[in-house]
Design a protein that fits this description.
Blueprint: H1 4-22, H2 26-47, H3 57-66, H4 72-82, H5 97-110
Length: 111
């Protein structure tokens, strides 16, 4: 289980993401969603006995994605969170990163 403190930190990041999105800053929303996912992923990995030290959210998500026991659905969501933006500062797929991050948090909190 993920600690209440970590879940609260993730929720605060998601609130920032939602506010950014509603203000028209989808790029900021993406970064906040990634930070939320990274916080929970770090805790999940720690519960599995894997220390990531001072790795960034991006690096933590890469570690989780690249584990052989990570489910395909989780990998897909992480891939969306790690996607590079195009020249218009948009990700090349139509997904709701905030909703996907909420799903990811629920899944990681179950294990």
């Amino acid at each position: 289980m993920i600690s209440e403190k970590t879940l609260a930190q993730a929720e605060a990041e998601l609130a920032i993401a939602e506010k950014s999105r509603s203000s028209g800053f989808e790029g900021r929303a993406r970064v906040s969603a990634r930070r939320a996912a990274g916080k929970v992923a770090q805790s999940f990995l720690a519960n599995q006995g894997i220390s990531v030290g001072s790795a960034s959210a991006y690096e933590i998500l890469q570690i989780l994605r690249d584990r052989p026991d990570t489910a395909r659905e989780i990998r897909q969501v992480i891939d969306h969170l790690l996607m590079r933006v195009n020249e218009d500062y948009q990700i090349p797929v139509q997904v709701d990163l905030i909703a996907e991050t909420r799903w990811l948090i629920q899944i990681l909190n179950k294990d």
